[in-house]
From TrEMBL:
Family affiliation: Belongs to the Orn/Lys/Arg decarboxylase class-II family.
CC annotations in GO: cytoplasm
Gene Ontology biological process terms from the UniProt entry: putrescine biosynthetic process from arginine, via ornithine
Enzyme active site: C350
The protein's name in its UniProt record: ornithine decarboxylase
Protein role: Catalyzes the first and rate-limiting step of polyamine biosynthesis that converts ornithine into putrescine, which is the precursor for the polyamines, spermidine and spermine. Polyamines are essential for cell proliferation and are implicated in cellular processes, ranging from DNA replication to apoptosis.
PANTHER family named among the record's database cross-references: ARGININE/DIAMINOPIMELATE/ORNITHINE DECARBOXYLASE (PTHR11482), ORNITHINE DECARBOXYLASE 1-RELATED (PTHR11482:SF6)
Location of N6-(pyridoxal phosphate)lysine modifications: K65
Subunit structure: Homodimer. Only the dimer is catalytically active, as the active sites are constructed of residues from both monomers.
Assigned EC number: 4.1.1.17
Length: 449
């Protein structure tokens, strides 16, 4: 293995190393103070294997909005997934990796005109809609588009509901929309839905697939021959979660309602692929001890510790506000024999809203100590801002040996990554534009020195 670039590398994990050991190495590097991520692309490859095993009929089209890091997109491109893009910008990013436009679905039912024009120019022809005005725009701007009607079917329990914004009623609205599409001679090719992100009710997929079948049948009466079912996102991706139950419901509903193998079934998973791949390390830069007086004894007691860390709700932890994510802090090192205190964790900005955790019991930690947050890959970095001048954490990429080809046999394996040139994005303080650096076709070994 050779080091192509000494500054930006994909760190290959051997059996002696792990994400946590890499974090330890980086945290203990001289003067390391900024918060940083470690992204394990091996975890993304593992997720893909799980997807292929559990949902063999369903072609994943990764939802770029969830985490648009170039390395993530390159890995998924290498694995052969399609992509769900929400805008012209996301389409361009995916196309720049050499992805064929036919592997992209423009899955935003309410698109600005210029974005539709762009889709027409670059040939991203599959797009969703859920309202009449969209049909008129498409008729004018991209009459050859292949349209997918998005219906609403909400999970009773989900981390983030989406139905209040998108999806027409499959019974009361879809038929009329399809009649209008027919009269405009628009090519409608299928049905999509999104049950809600972080779905906690597997059975909803059965209801949604059944409703989609009814829309397929109605479309037939208008002369349409639908050939695409898009079962959206909603699949959990944190450590300790599984898609087993959801997959069981989906597979059985597909057997019941869509037994015809010529119907293409796609999905738009986001958090499933990336959530557990990203681990965030934050540094404690300030501490306030809250002292209160005991009303009985009159003695002062240290009741609470306030820890200030260098990433907050304006940065990665925006996921607490926007994605209803529950984040769990874990001290990087062990604290044998140290007293524990009720504590709160705060972000670095001057806003009082910038609280990461209101109440948690932590050991007596010191300035310079590190707190680790796992499952931070979904809906974090793309939304983060450098508010107050605090930088967005840099991402260090690691991969385990098993996914990187070293022998010809490896190279022929379905899940081995080719030695693609990996690009790494470096977010800069005060500048939201990601700077792309073309680096390596891999590598370095096990540990950072
Ligand atoms: N597809 C669409 C249209 C979405 O809006 C979203 C998330 O908001 C996704 C897919 C990804 O959903 P998830 O991350 O729950 O898989």
């Amino acid at each position: 293995m050779k080091i192509i670039n000494s500054e930006e590398r994909v760190h290959i994990l051997d059996s002696q190393s792990s994400v946590w050991s890499v974090i330890n190495n980086i945290a203990n590097t001289n003067n390391q103070e900024d918060a940083f991520y470690v992204c394990d692309i091996g975890d993304i490859v593992r997720k893909h294997k799980i997807w292929k095993a559990k949902l063999p009929r369903v072609e994943p089209h990764y939802a770029v909005k969830c985490n648009d890091n170039l390395t993530v997109l390159e890995v998924l491109t290498a694995l052969g997934t399609g992509f769900d893009c929400a805008s012209k910008g996301e389409i361009n990013k995916v196309l720049s990796l050499g992805v064929d436009p036919s592997n992209i679905i423009f899955a935003n039912p309410a698109k600005p005109a210029s974005h539709i024009r762009h889709a027409a120019t670059v040939g991203v022809s599959t797009m969703t809609f859920d309202n009449e005005t969209e049909l008129h725009k498409v008729k004018k701007l991209y009459p050859d588009a292949k349209m997918v009607i998005r219906i609403r079917c909400d999970a009773t329990d989900a981390q983030c509901q989406l139905g209040m914004k998108f999806g027409c009623n499959p019974v009361t609205e879809a038929p009329e929309l399809l009649r209008i599409a027919r009269s405009l001679e628009i090519n409608v090719v299928g049905v999509s839905f999104h049950v809600g992100s972080g779905c906690r009710e597997p059975q909803v997929f059965s209801r949604a697939i059944s409703a989609a079948r009814d829309v397929f049948e109605y479309a037939k009466t208008l002369g349409y021959q639908f050939n695409l079912l898009d079962i959206g996102g909603g699949y959990p991706g944190d450590r300790g979660t599984s898609i087993d139950q959801i997959a069981e419901v989906i597979n059985s509903a597909l057997d019941d309602y869509f037994p015809d193998p010529s119907i293409q079934i796609i999905a738009e998973p986001g958090r499933f692929y990336v959530s557990s791949a990203y681990t965030l390390a934050c540094n404690i830069h300030s501490i306030r001890n809250v002292i209160e007086t005991d009303p009985v004894t009159g003695n002062t007691v240290n009741t609470h510790r306030m820890y200030y860390i260098n990433d907050g709700v304006y940065g990665s932890f925006n996921c607490i506000l926007y994605d209803h994510q529950v984040v769990v802090p874990q001290p990087l090192k062990e604290y044998p024999g140290v007293k524990y205190y009720p504590s709160s964790i705060w972000g670095p900005t001057c806003d009082g809203l910038d609280q990461v955790i209101e109440n948690v019991v932590l050991p007596d930690m010191k300035i310079g100590d590190w707190l680790i947050f796992e499952d931070m890959g979904a809906y974090t970095l793309p939304v983060a801002s450098p508010f107050n001048g605090f930088p967005i954490p840099k991402v260090h990429i690691v991969a385990d040996e098993s996914i990187w080809p070293s022998t010809n046999e490896d190279i022929n394996s379905e899940y081995c990554l080719p030695s693609l040139p990996i690009r790494i994005e470096i977010p800069r303080c005060g500048n939201n534009t990601m700077i792309e650096e073309y680096v390596l076709d891999y590598v370095d070994i096990a540990h950072m020195e």
